Predict the structure.
Amino acid sequence: MTSASPSESALAAATLIQTRQTVLPKYQVEPGPQGMALEMILAAAGHAPDHRQVRPWRLIRVAEAARPALGEVFAQALLARDAQASDIEQAQARDKALRSPLLLLAVVDATKGDAQISLNERVISAGCALQNMMLMATALGFASSLTTGKALHDAGLRHLFGLTAGEQALCFLSIGSAASRRPFKPRPSPSEYLSVLDADGLRPHP
Ligand SMILES: Cc1cc2nc3c(=O)[nH]c(=O)nc-3n(C[C@H](O)[C@H](O)[C@H](O)COP(=O)(O)O)c2cc1C
């Protein structure tokens, strides 16, 4: 490692990483990424680490025309969990499908390709792909967020997205323009998550 000042590109990378923040779908508005911007975001996913080129994940974009069907899946999943869910709660569940301009479902395949590649590795690869996309979205001026929810494991959702037996829905990635942003969160410093394994055992990172 050199002790020289960081290069411009290193500083730009640090700024990009530090300015990504979650903007939940309800705070996202049009326009979403289109054309070249959309292509750049989607292509960023393909640069994720991928042991033995299994590409153990895939993405499904939920087009505008399919949002009502996804909303219905959310509402039915809610009713399956709570048959007493009110009309308002069902409407709120449906509304979740309508919120962000670009809505992607990330799916991991636990079995595809080389059986040596564990599910952990596959999920990490998918996480890297998602982070790549969020960083590219940030660089292009868009807001992003990851969301999950109980409906991810619902049979209706699996059917709607055509998931195979070996696939699991991981999370949604929403990208759009920020209607509002929160102040940046305080972030942990390396000393909070890093220790050093030395000849004498573990010691804290200074
Ligand atoms: C896989 C994953 C799923 C998440 N799902 C939700 C969710 O459904 N709802 C939510 O409010 N936050 C969810 N979060 C948290 C936010 O996406 C976000 O990471 C968190 O609010 C921290 O904000 P930051 O990204 O600005 O650090 C999820 C995070 C991850 C990593």
Summary: Residues 110 and 166 are 5 Å apart (CA to CA). The beta strands are 28-29, 57-61, 102-109, 143-147, 167-178, 195-198, 201-204.
